[in-house]
Every structure is written in C-alpha cells, then in structure tokens.
Design the sequence.
C-alpha cells in the first residue's frame, strides 16, 4: 500500500484525541460550535450537570414523583454507560441513544423548552444554534431515559425522563 493510502486510512487513537480535546475543552458557551460526533465517537462519556433542569416539571431532577430508587437507578445507569464509547451507545439499539426529533408528532417537548434550560433570554440563542438534544436508556427501569447534549466530548445532562414522557407511547 502506498504511503499516501496509509495516511488516508489511519485509524485515530482515542487517547491522542482525548489529549487534543483537553487542550481546547471549555464549558459550553451559547451558540459555540462543538466537535463533530465523528471525532468523539471512540471516547467514553463524561457527564456534567451544569444544565440539569430544576423547574419541578415531570422531567426535572426535583420532581416530587422521584424516589431514592430512581436516583440510584439514574446514577447506576450513568456509571454503566460511562464504560462504553459514544459509538457503541449510538450503534447498539440496547442503549436507545439518538437525537431527539423536535419535529416528530408525538414528542411532548419543544425547542423552546430546551432553550429555556440553556438561557433565560431567548434572543441569545437561535434555534440553529441549539446543540443537538440526545436521549439514552438508563436500564434500571424499562422507560427511564436521560436527555442532554454533547459538547466537546462531555454529555451535559438536562432532563431525567423516568416515565418516557418525551416520546409517549414509544418504548
């Protein structure tokens, strides 16, 4: 194989990628571009709670319906999922990791709901600047999911969808 082809098909080293990410890592800034999923796909998730919602809705971490078992299940789910790569989360249907489609008919949240978690002033963030909202299964309760967004390899948790409220009727 010619030298040029070796470079073309060189498989990235996740450890080197992580070192590069550490150099440029910053907290999420409104409208700032992140790193494409392709470049972080072999990294294992790091979870952050900077944007988790506390507005007492059924998707929030201070919802009165949540029990100790729910919080333990949530943490156990994060721990389990932190041992696998983003690519495995995305490609293995067991994890149900996918972007949330705000245009879907049955979805119970709107872009505005997500935007209000990120900023109190709507004019600071256009719909086009919204990061992609993802969900994944926590595997302690058949319906339990967590939702958040990826920014520079960090998964920022926003909501805890214990009862599958975002996509009602789908499992």
Sequence:
């Amino acid at each position: 194989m010619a030298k040029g082809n070796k470079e073309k098909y060189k498989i990235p080293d996740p450890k080197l990628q992580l070192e590069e990410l550490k150099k440029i890592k910053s907290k999420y800034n409104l409208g700032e571009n992140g790193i494409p999923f392709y470049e972080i796909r072999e990294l294992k998730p790091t979870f952050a709670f900077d944007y988790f919602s506390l507005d007492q809705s059924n998707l929030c971490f201070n919802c009165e319906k949540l029990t100790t078992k729910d919080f333990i299940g949530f943490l156990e789910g994060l721990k389990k999922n932190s041992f696998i790569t983003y690519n495995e989360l995305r490609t293995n249907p067991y994890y149900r990791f996918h972007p949330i489609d705000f245009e879907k008919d049955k979805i119970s949240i709107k872009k505005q709901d997500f935007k209000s978690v990120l900023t109190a002033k709507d004019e600071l963030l256009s719909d086009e600047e919204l990061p992609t909202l993802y969900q994944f299964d926590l595997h302690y309760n058949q319906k339990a999911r967590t939702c958040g967004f990826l920014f520079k390899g960090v998964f920022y948790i926003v909501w805890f969808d214990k009862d599958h409220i975002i996509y009602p009727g789908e499992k």
Observations:
- The CA atoms of residues 80 and 138 lie 8 Å apart.
- DSSP finds six helices and five strands in the chain.
- The two ends are 47 Å apart (CA to CA).
